[in-house]
Amino acid sequence: MNEHLTEITVFTVLFLLVSGMGFVAARWRRPDNLASLDEWGLGGRSFGPWVTWFLVGGDLYTAYTFVAVPALIWSAGAMGFFAVPYTIVVYPIVFLVLLRLWSISHVHGFVTPADFVRARFGSPTLALLIAITGIVATMPYIALQLVGIEAVLKSMGVTGHLPLIIAFAILAAYTYQSGLRAPALIAFVKDTLIYIVIIVAIIVIPMKLGGWDVVFGEAQKKFAASPAPDGILLNANNQLQYVTLALGSALALFLYPHSITGVLASRNRDVIKRNMAALPAYSLLLGLIALLGYMAIAAGVKPIGTDNNTIVPQLFNQMFPDWFTGVAYAAIGIGALVPAAIMSIAAANLFTRNIYKEYIRPNASDADEARVSKITSLLVKVGAILCILFLDTGFSIDLQLIGGVIILQTLPAVALGIYTRWFHRAGLIAGWIAGMGAGMLMLYNIGNPATGKLHFAGSAFPLEKLGLDTKMTIYAGIVALAVNLIVAILGTIIARASKMTDGRDATQPDQYLADEGDPRVKDLDLTP
User: Fold this and answer.
1) What mean pLDDT comes out for the span 509-524?
2) Contact between 396 and 71 (Cβ < 8 Å)
3) Would you list the DSSP string of 193-220?
């Protein structure tokens, strides 16, 4: 422990400084009353371009970015770069969806995507499924942030789960008090630290290793000697997996409740437009972070035990002086706090609005909603801690990829539902059941002989298990989504042919977006 004293000191000071900011955030832009989901869970829907930039960026580029992506590249090579194209193509896609969703939510006071589905299709059952899906998909994502903190603690020689639980308790306390304002304020420090660490890393580490040609050369040697079909270039068997994983991840990213929460907290549509145009700049940073995996190979870095998540922290420990290693560790740890806070708030809002208020207490006041959401956000974090304590997190990217398969099943109701009311609620429910069932079945049948895991060992589904004579794999989420859409279309056709009663649409988004004379949207920027 003494050899890491400087690192621990720097990490602790920065961690406590940011935690203090989390508590102070309750007074930042403080309204008269925080006792409502609009204020506690959406920051008063008042964030401008800069706050939204850091909030959404801090929400999307997480400890998973720092820990899991380089670990995958260290282990599997070029396949790990799927995260770069998906964070490029995602923004034009969500630009089409989120502007409309913000406008509809602003008019009707929606807090969650399930609120929109409930009003759009007149189906509390479908809204319940969307809410449950969002909560379940968010849980492993929160756990992934805590994995990042745990990897840093291990690299500093801090063992046991008690320090992680303490960090979680601090996070839970200031999130409970300050709501979305806490991660919004912390995100400024988080992103600044990450930019500093990455810029230093891509300059200093390759220089110490002898240049980029040495970095890529050593990576190529490692993969050439490996029995697995990995390398610094894709091969014929994993190209389909790469493409479908990038596309599926792009479609899934802004379906996550925490992503939508960050967008709904924006002040107006212009803020969203500016951010969707500017956020791809983060993709450059992501590509540089990914290269840390190859640097770790060239530096001969080994994980602590079998925990691949410690690759990047160990690289920093080996290449940087102790004080800057402490700064880098703090960047990872703080990089986990921002998204974990937003995710827990988003999951809590889903429970409060679409389960508690819908089925338990329909007459709940704004203050009741805020109180229940605060308590639920604590319970969500406890669930994430339990994931860390009892699940195998040695290859943490699996957690995020499995969550993506789950959240993709909300695309027909949420993303397509914004543009069309053609789908029947019965068809969407049947599609969700079919897609979720197919996704879970495929994930169950994905094993990894290298680690000995027989089930849920990733998201690359072998096409040979569908009876095809090939070694190619495909992202399970895309197949499950295709099943979902096919069943939803067939179910809708059958429902309409049999004249089944459909729910009443209470949103009429096309009218609101086209009619600037509607008094309810007089303050909206309705330009496309």
Assistant:
1) 46
2) yes
3) HHHHHHHHHHHHHHHHHT-HHHHHHHHH
* Nearest of 100, 90, 115 to residue 419 by alpha carbon: 100
Q: How is residue 391 annotated by DSSP?
A: S
Q: What is the pLDDT of residues 294-336, one digit of tens each?
A: 999 999 989 887 778 889 999 999 999 999 999 999 888 888 8
Phi, psi of 450 (to 5 degrees): -65, -35
Average the pLDDT over 434-462 and give the result: 81
Query: What's the rounded Cα separation, in Å, for the pair 31 and 50?
Result: 20
Opening angle at CA 138, ends 136 and 143, nearest 5: 105
Rounded distance between C-alpha atoms, residue 294 and residue 218, angstroms = 8
| Cross-strand bridge partners of residue 231 | 77
Tokens of 189: 């420090």
Could you tell me if 60 and 253 are in contact, meaning their C-beta atoms sit under 8 angstroms apart? yes
Terminal Cα-to-Cα distance of the chain (whole angstroms): 57
Burial tier of 431 (Cβ tally within 10 Å: 0-12, 13-18, 19+): buried
The rounded distance, in Å, linking the Cα atoms of 287 and 225 is: 25
Report the b/e string of 97-123 with b at 16+ CB within 10 A.
Answer: bbbbbbbbbbbbebbbbbbbbbbbbbb
Most confident of 139-153, 155-169, 359-373, 430-444: 430-444
Which residues in 156-283 belong to E strands, given as ranges? none
99: left (phi over 0), alpha (psi -120 to 50) or beta: alpha
Q: What is the 3-state secondary structure (H, E, C) of 410-466?
A: HHHHHHHHHHCCCCCHHHHHHHHHHHHHHHHHHHHCCCECCCCECCCCCCEEEHHHH
Q: Count of CB atoms within 10 A of residue 390's CB? A: 8
Eight-state DSSP code of residue 78 = G
Orientation angle between helical segments 311-319 and 63-76, nearest 10 degrees: 90
Task: With 0.70 as the threshold, say if the pTM is over it.
Answer: yes
Query: Which of 57, 84, 56, 59 lies closest to 69, judged by CA?
Result: 84
Instruction: Supply the DSSP symbol for 403.
Output: H
* Backbone torsions φ then ψ of 473, nearest 5 degrees: -120, 165
Three-point CA angle 281, 76, 398, nearest 5°: 75
Q: Where are the alpha helices (DSSP H) in 291-409?
A: 292-298, 311-319, 322-351, 366-390, 397-407
Indicate the length of the chain as a whole number: 528
Tell me the pLDDT of the chain averaged across its residues: 83
Structure tokens, 128: 């319940």
Its sign, for the CA torsion 170, 175, 177, 181, is: positive
Whether residue 231 contacts residue 223, with contact meaning beta carbons closer than 8 Å, is answered with: yes
